[in-house]
Design brief:
globular; alpha+beta; 5-stranded mixed beta sheet; 59% helix; two-stranded antiparallel ribbon; 547 residues
């Protein structure tokens, strides 16, 4: 390691000094990248957060006090939703004032996205020589761009997460009590946005010990978020009969135990999700000579072979499986390179910053791979900032031309994937509107299967979700839903007459959550990749009528 690299790591860069210019650039680029997607239809779990927000608007102290038909049968929302309510309180405040339209809510969620990129800059300025570049790398990862187009809690968690780390670092530097209180409050807010936020407590505990080499009184402030989450669990137990935090932990463990594949397949899928979600950043690994040696052609071939034998047979795929296991091997190789780089960086430096990045990367990866109910892009999202910071911290020797080329190429890819996810969400809204127009005169007789955004728009049109616990249909009832739909089997087929349907075109060859293509950004239940370059089948919806 040369003196110039050491100096770059240990001394703040010019862009990290007092100038506001980098922050203004970062804010402008963030808004410029996300504003074109403000009209995105509500998608995946967005309806759950919106329904809770609408409940909060009427009953602010009882956020989960209603029932919902989400899995084709009616359940209490306190059993369906496995996230705390802070994000929905934010949506309730926005919706109550500005309305519940897509544009109003997506515009409001630009604020957490801005806070996440600016917070990443604040952390990066203490850890690497080019914090603006690290923050831009975080922004243009596929996982950030896709997640920022939703009104779920994930980007808000990331915002609180990086702001809490930046505040804790500042508190340790300044030794001011109010800064520790602020950091503890931000950790608490993260935990009440998404339960994984409480992982900040052990992360910052380890960082503080590595920095100061001894136990110190500021560590007591890390008990505050634990106390707040424990109080939340007690209050929700009184309201709903079970503590929602402990209930979420047990639900995640039971679902994972019942549905996860073998450990090797699980690891390969987690690596593929990590590599695919962060590919725009991990592309810079090709400039790390030691990593290139470790991730040479033989390693890539080994991952492709393992993906083909251990993973492809486990998931539902249509057509040729070659694109899936090739991309899976590539993504897994990139993720393995990240883990190796984090370990090598720690072995070389052994300072507080390298320990923070190592614990942040490995801790998030282990949770996403083995502890969450499934592998999802949403649980990979907290990996985006430390990955970008690590790449910049280790890549001081990357020449400017190479840096710009990689950044431009993979930023375009991230934007295209975000467009593909937008189009997938648009299919659900368009299908619902088609059925609304076709059956407007008999909307009270329309029942539907399927959920996510399609369910949200169907219910808004007056249709009723099908209850598989009460599968009886009346003569003249109209049943619609997406294909493929495994729940259609619960219908009494002999009493139904097929009456066509609708087919909608997706973005060609780019998929983020399309069953049969291998792409399943929102849950590995649907495929082993967060996104896939593969043939995009049309989104098909059926119509049947009861005799």
């Amino acid at each position: 390691m040369d003196n110039a690299t050491l100096k770059a790591w240990t001394e703040p860069s010019r862009e990290a000094e007092g100038s506001r210019k980098p922050l203004l650039i970062l804010a402008a680029v963030t808004l410029g990248a996300l504003v074109p997607f403000l009209g995105k239809p509500f998608h995946i779990d967005d309806p759950l957060f919106l329904w809770i927000a609408q409940q909060i608007a009427c009953h602010p102290l009882d956020p989960y006090g209603f029932t919902v038909n989400w899995s084709s049968f009616v359940q209490p929302m306190s059993e369906v939703m496995q996230n705390p309510p802070l994000c929905s309180y934010y949506a309730a405040a926005i919706g109550s004032v500005f309305g519940w339209s897509e544009i109003a809510l997506h515009a409001a969620f630009l604020i957490p996205a801005l806070a996440a990129t600016l917070g990443t800059f604040a952390v990066a300025r203490r850890l690497c020589p080019r914090p603006l570049f690290a923050a831009l790398l975080t922004l243009f990862t596929p996982v950030f761009m896709i997640s920022a187009g939703n009104v779920m809690c994930d980007v808000m968690l990331l915002a609180f997460w990086v702001m809490a780390i930046a505040s804790w670092m500042s508190a340790l530097e300044q030794e001011q009590i109010w800064r520790f209180v602020l950091a503890a409050a931000l950790i608490s807010a993260a935990a009440l946005t998404k339960y994984f936020g409480i992982a900040l407590v052990p992360l910052l505990f380890v960082y503080t010990l590595a920095r100061d080499r001894r136990l110190r009184w500021p560590l007591l402030f890390l008990l505050l978020p634990i106390a707040i989450l424990a109080l939340y669990d007690l209050l929700t137990a009184r309201l709903y009969g079970h503590g929602l935090f402990t209930s979420a932990l047990s639900a995640s463990a039971s679902i994972a135990a019942a549905t996860r594949p073998g450990r090797l397949a699980e690891l390969l899928i987690a690596l593929a999700f990590t590599g695919g979600c962060l590919l725009s950043t991990l592309s810079f690994l090709i400039f790390q000579k030691r990593i290139v040696l470790l991730a040479a052609a033989l390693v890539l071939v080994a991952f492709c072979a393992a993906f083909r034998s251990e993973v492809v047979s486990w998931v539902y795929l249509e057509g040729n499986t070659l694109p899936v296991w090739l991309q899976g091997g590539l993504f897994a190789t990139a993720a393995a390179g990240l883990l190796v780089l984090a370990g090598m960086h720690f072995a070389q430096r052994r300072d507080a910053g390298s320990i923070l990045l190592l614990a942040w990367i490995f801790g998030t990866f282990v949770f996403a791979a083995f502890l969450n109910w499934s592998v999802t892009g949403r649980t990979i999202l907290p990996l985006a900032p430390p990955t970008a910071i690590l790449i910049v911290r280790c890549g001081a020797s990357i020449n400017q031309l190479s840096r710009r080329f990689c950044f431009a190429l993979f930023s375009v890819l991230s934007l295209l994937l975000t467009t593909a996810d937008f189009r997938e969400a648009e299919c659900g809204r368009s299908a619902a509107r088609h059925f609304q127009n076709e059956f407007q005169a008999t909307s009270d007789r329309v029942r539907f299967l399927g959920h996510w955004g399609f369910q949200y728009y169907m219910q808004n049109s007056g249709a009723t979700p099908f209850d598989r616990r009460k599968p009886e249909v009346r003569p003249g009832d109209i049943i619609v839903g997406p294909l493929p739909d495994p729940l259609i089997a619960v219908l009494p087929v002999k009493d139904l007459v097929e009456q066509g349907g609708v087919s909608l075109v997706r973005l060609p060859y780019l998929n983020t959550s399309v069953l049969g293509t291998g792409a399943a950004f929102y849950s590995s239940f649907g495929g082993p990749l967060p996104w896939a370059i593969n043939r995009s089948p049309p989104a098909r919806y059926y119509v049947t009528r009861a005799r």
